[in-house]
Amino acid sequence: MRVIIYTGKGGVGKTSVAAATALRSAELGHRTVVISTDAAHSLSDSLEVSLSGTVQRIQKNLDGIEVDIQLELETRWKEIQAYFSDFLASQGMDNVSAKEMAVFPGMELMSALFYVEDFHKSKEYDVVVMDTAPTADTLRLLAFPDIANWYFDHLFHMFRNALKVARATVGRVVSTPLPTDEFLQDIEDLRERLRYVRDLLSDPEITSVRLVVNPEKMVISETQRAYTYLCMYGYTVESIVVNRILSEGISDPFFADKLEEQRAHLKTIDEMFSPLKTFRAGLMPREVLGRAALEGLADQLFGDEDPTKAYSLESPMRIISGDGENRLAVKLPFLMDQKLELYTRKDVLVLQLGAFKKSIVLPYALAGKKLLGADLDGAWLTIRFEGDEVVRKKEKGRRGRKTPRKAR
Question: Topology of domain 317-407, per CATH?
Answer without folding.
Answer: Immunoglobulin-like (2.60.40)
